[in-house]
Fold ABC transporter ATP-binding protein.
Amino acid sequence: MDEVSAERPGAATAAPVPGGGDGGAGGADDGQVIRTRALTKRYRGGQLAVDGLDLAVPAGSVFGFLGPNGSGKTTTIRMLMGLIEPTSGTAHVLDRPMPRSARTVLPQVGALIEGPALYGFLSGRDNLLRQDAADPTADPRTRRARVAAALDRVGLTAASGKKARAYSLGMKQRLGLAAALLRPRRLLVLDEPTNGLDPQGMREIRSLVRELALDGTTVFLSSHLLDEIEQVCTHAAVMAHGRLITQGAVAELAAGARGRLVVTTPDTADAARVLKEQGIGDLAVTDGRVTGEPPAADLAEVNAALVTAGVRVRGFGVERASLEDAFVALTGEGFDVAG
Ligand SMILES: Nc1ncnc2c1ncn2[C@@H]1O[C@H](COP(=O)(O)OP(=O)(O)OP(=O)(O)O)[C@@H](O)[C@H]1O
């Protein structure tokens, strides 16, 4: 697509990059790698893409930036990376204001935005060598070793001599990640890193993200896939129509929504009748299952009522709420986007 991921504006500086933990007094809130206050973007056509966003991304988290298509995720990421100016509000990345500190901040940030910019006629390895050579702060003497380490990291060593145009989409994404990993990073920003990948490619990128996080790198990734966020992320922010709906630890977000009572039975009609008598609301009957709101009464009493009425119960319990339940509860809308 565009050149965003390859031509990082910050790479133009040869100034030494301050080491980690340089927040200090007077910086943004400690322990937060990204912090925005009332961040807003209105495009020239009048479209309000991001509306008063207050984002707080804790250091060391795998932070999922979740929202349906068009909810403002890419626009936010472009502001965080200093690629576009906010209309109003502020954004701090690694304790420094963006876009003002882009030259200092961006060398510490690995970004994969809108697909990696690759040369199809070059091999995977040569693409990385070229990208590394474009970074004036990168030491040419250690270039080959760093490229080899990055290829190894993403599992592309065996395919590194192949031309990039022969790579699958998943391999291209991994090469893009390798490019982001050519130097140590405090933060990785990945915009829809599994978009367009087949299930196997998705699994590979997700496990890679988990591994990277084990090293202590904070990972900020956007996705429109709820289950992806639940599988990979420790924290999440949920966007809808340019606004922040909620943010926090994934486990807590899901816990905020009530789960569903689920009864598995061949006698669904009888089960639904008994559950209704027991005061269970919002009943839904699907193939071999009756679900409803969790009861206020003792679960054991409800189960006993089913059994007494002769309902053959194969399974009974309250299913844990998912992030999807939380989204629906918070927005009143289904999270219905094309995968
Ligand atoms: N350059 C632009 N000019 C005008 N409107 C834009 C521009 N870029 C995005 N928008 C609009 O801003 C809103 C948010 O778009 P954005 O791309 O940030 O959302 P998103 O959550 O990243 O969605 P997607 O996953 O589809 O990219 C959308 O309504 C979109 O049409």
